[in-house]
């Protein structure tokens, strides 16, 4: 492993640790070290902040990894985790749950759990549909077109539901769409960790075939790469990684486009193993930074990531147009 890469990873790791400490000390109350241990008076607040840091680290690992897989597979730096329509269907499932379950009386912790489960269920349903029809789509572009159509249809249905929704249901859906990093419980973090771990394991097994695929379809086949298996692995891994974060945090996916782009700028883009590691490190750092900004300004997490991500994407488009 090159020394330059080791130094870069060490720098990012130190920055992650510093931002994690800043996160733990960001909030309405000032906490002391003993608040994070035992049964101190502010231990519940300390637990919320620890959960916030953990979920930001998980999101920083999963979203950029999903975007990295999509961009490398489709060979498009503007591809993101939502290119297959997975997150749009997750949003649609959440909309159905919020708009049609308001008459059902449930404790708040169960409401949050069912909301996340509905998003995961909808995403997994679309993932199985994608897997079933992927054999018919030999050209990668057809998957993108299918994802665009699904996203457009899901967006239209959500708009229709919003038009007829009651005020409180509409407010709940909008709040969910903003993204919340301080409402995830420890049990939900365990579920999120399991889904992300499964997605990362599949991603690990797709990196080597992706290297062959980046050299061209014919060359990849000559190396023995099973392109159909690679496509299935990419769909499953990206779906698990993006859907799990969307279910628990809302649609905060702009980081999945911009982080892989930054990683290609700071290190050799042809080294996919190193690129994947950099995506996870830089993703964790940026999500922790967004979390601090969200706590300081009380601006929703999705708004912060969008405000940061949109100018970056515009610069990418202009740069690509010049080339």
What series of H and E elements makes up the topology? HHHHHHHHHHHH
Relative strand content: under 5%
Task: Profile the largest sheet.
Answer: none
Oligomer: single chain
Shape: globular
State the distance separating the first and last CA atoms: 32 Å
Number of DSSP strand runs: 0
Q: How does the helix and strand content classify structurally?
A: mainly alpha
Average pLDDT reading: 82
Number of helices: 12
Amount of helix = over 70%
Rg over C-alpha atoms, rounded to the nearest angstrom: 20 Å
Uncertain ranges? none
List keywords for this structure.
323 residues; mainly alpha
What features would you describe in this structure?
With 323 residues, this protein is mainly alpha-helical. It has 12 helices and no strands. Helix 3 packs antiparallel against helix 6, helix 3 runs parallel beside helix 9 and helix 7 runs antiparallel to helix 9. The chain is globular and about 65 Å long. It starts with a helix and ends with a helix. The relative contact order is 0.17. The model has no long low-confidence stretch (mean pLDDT 82).
Fold topology:
Elements lengths: L2 H22 L18 H32 L11 H15 L7 H26 L6 H25 L2 H12 L7 H28 L3 H6 L4 H23 L5 H12 L5 H26 L3 H22 L1
Question: Brief overview, please?
Answer:
It is built from 12 helices and no strands. It is mostly helical and 323 residues long. The chain is globular.
């Amino acid at each position: 492993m090159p020394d330059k890469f080791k130094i870069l990873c060490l720098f990012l790791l130190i920055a992650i640790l510093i931002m994690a400490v800043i996160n733990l000390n960001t909030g309405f109350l000032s906490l002391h070290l003993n608040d994070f241990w035992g049964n101190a008076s502010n231990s519940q607040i300390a637990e919320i902040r620890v959960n916030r840091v953990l979920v930001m680290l998980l999101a920083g690992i999963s979203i950029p990894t999903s975007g990295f897989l999509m961009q490398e597979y489709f060979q498009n730096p503007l591809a993101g985790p939502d290119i297959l329509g997975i997150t749009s269907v997750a949003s649609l499932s959440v909309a159905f749950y919020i708009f049609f379950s308001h008459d059902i009386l449930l404790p708040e912790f169960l409401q949050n759990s069912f909301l996340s489960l509905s998003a995961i269920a909808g995403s997994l349903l679309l993932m199985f549909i994608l897997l079933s029809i992927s054999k018919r789509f030999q050209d990668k572009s057809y998957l993108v077109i299918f994802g665009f159509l699904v996203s457009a249809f899901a967006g239209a249905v959500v708009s229709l539901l919003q038009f007829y929704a009651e005020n409180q249901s509409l407010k709940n859906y909008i709040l969910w769409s903003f993204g919340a990093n301080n409402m995830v419980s420890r049990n939900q973090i365990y579920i999120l960790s399991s889904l992300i771990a499964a997605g990362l394991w599949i991603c690990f097994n797709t990196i080597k075939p992706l290297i062959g695929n980046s050299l061209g379809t014919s060359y990849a086949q000559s190396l023995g790469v099973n392109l159909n298996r690679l496509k299935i692995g990419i769909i499953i891994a990206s779906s698990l990684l993006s859907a799990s974060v969307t279910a628990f945090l809302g649609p905060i996916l702009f980081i999945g486009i911009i982080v892989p782009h930054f990683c290609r700028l700071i290190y050799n883009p042809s080294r996919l193993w190193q690129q994947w590691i950099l995506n996870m490190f830089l993703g964790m750092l940026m999500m922790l930074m967004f979390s601090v900004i969200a706590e300081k300004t009380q601006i929703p997490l999705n708004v912060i990531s969008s405000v940061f991500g949109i100018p970056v994407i515009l610069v990418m488009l202009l740069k690509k147009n010049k080339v």
